[in-house]
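quick q for whoever's on today - can somebody do inverse folding on this one?? i tried earlier but teh output was garbage lol. tokens:
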């Protein structure tokens, strides 16, 4: 990006919520401090403060794709809502240079009583398009959403998948200058997710600024030019070394998960430690063991009981998940069979939500009795 034109600038952004223990405390907070001020007494507070965001600052340049990662409750969605203008910050300011199209929540911006067609025109007008412009783009939106005759039905009758299909189609087909996506694609099927990512690739090539919040670190690695790491409402990392940020984040999550399992019978502190970017990078050097998420399918004639993946030097992949180009990996499987199998075939594939990126078939010519 030679021009370095700023698309979004965030300065000292914070968001504080007032948390009340009981409904009546909200009423007390409205009246009692006023009476106490009249009586010249010290005002009492009936709430506790919860800071969803604390002093966040960064700039995003036009054409950049930014990935934001962090645990649930880290403040990612709050940040995006304030960038879009749907939440007012407690302190700080945001400057946006460009038309924003945002997919923040499932069904956000849709009137459930209106048909899909009506909502397309409603959203388009909110985004500043004229009826003629929406008319010109309507067929491409309809083709992308691929919901057929449901476009003429009230959206309250839609499934979650149909909601996100139409919502993303509207936001992505109007050629936005800034596209913001917050985990909404997670409810779509694999085919639609692939279509969405292909569209995002096209927008990226056109120079659209993209901000994506997702727990799919593969998507961050594939598309992001920079990665923002958030924890407890604070920005603790901002780096163009996306791979380092993702590996550090995943290692940190594994360590926290292991720590939670070790302390399952002990009270859990409400305070989560905040890691600096140096500590995040240091986490790449740590090791941890974790259970593998299983997705089993098939007839059960043969069952993979165990498997391991090691590097050429014997190091387990789990201890050092970074694989360099040309590096060899060794897969070992323990398979139990229920009946004789001739010419068995063992397949290995590594894939992401966007589609398969690597696959290898190993043909084992054997007879098992």
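ok took a stab at it. sequence:
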């Amino acid at each position: 990006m030679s021009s370095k034109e700023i698309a979004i600038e965030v300065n000292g952004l914070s968001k504080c919520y007032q948390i009340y223990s009981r409904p009546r405390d909200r009423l007390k907070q409205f009246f009692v401090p006023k009476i106490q001020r009249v009586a010249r007494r010290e005002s009492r507070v009936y709430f506790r403060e919860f800071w969803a965001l604390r002093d966040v600052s960064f700039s995003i340049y036009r054409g950049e794709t930014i990935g934001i990662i962090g645990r649930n409750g880290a403040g990612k969605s709050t940040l995006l809502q304030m960038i879009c203008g749907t939440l007012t910050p407690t302190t700080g300011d945001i400057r946006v240079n460009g038309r924003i199209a945002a997919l923040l929540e499932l069904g956000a911006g849709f009137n459930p009583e209106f048909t899909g067609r009506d909502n397309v025109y409603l959203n388009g007008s909110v985004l500043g398009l004229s009826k003629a412009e929406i008319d010109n783009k309507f067929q491409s939106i309809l083709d992308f959403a691929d919901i057929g005759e449901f476009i003429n039905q009230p959206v309250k009758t839609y499934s979650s998948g149909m909601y996100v299909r139409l919502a993303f189609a509207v936001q992505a087909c109007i050629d936005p200058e800034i596209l913001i996506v917050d985990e909404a694609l997670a409810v779509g099927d694999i085919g639609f997710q692939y279509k969405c990512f292909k569209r995002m690739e096209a927008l990226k090539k056109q120079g659209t600024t993209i901000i994506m919040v997702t727990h799919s670190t593969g998507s961050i690695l594939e598309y992001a030019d920079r990665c923002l790491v958030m924890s407890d409402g604070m920005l603790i990392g901002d780096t163009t070394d996306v791979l380092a940020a993702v590996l550090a984040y995943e290692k940190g999550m594994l360590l926290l998960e292991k720590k939670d399992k070790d302390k399952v019978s002990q009270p859990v502190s409400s305070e989560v430690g905040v890691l600096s970017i140096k500590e995040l990078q240091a986490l790449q050097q740590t090791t941890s063991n974790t259970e593998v998420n299983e997705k089993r399918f098939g007839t059960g004639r043969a069952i993979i009981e165990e498997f391991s993946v090691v590097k050429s030097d014997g190091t387990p992949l789990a201890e050092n998940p970074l694989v360099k180009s040309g590096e060899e990996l060794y897969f070992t499987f323990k398979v139990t069979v229920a009946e004789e199998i001739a010419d068995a075939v063992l397949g290995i594939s590594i894939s992401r939500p966007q589609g398969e990126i690597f696959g290898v078939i190993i043909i084992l010519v054997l007879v098992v009795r």
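fwiw Residues 267-277, 279-291 have pLDDT under 50 and may be disordered. also The longest helix spans residues 242-262. so keep that in mind when u check it
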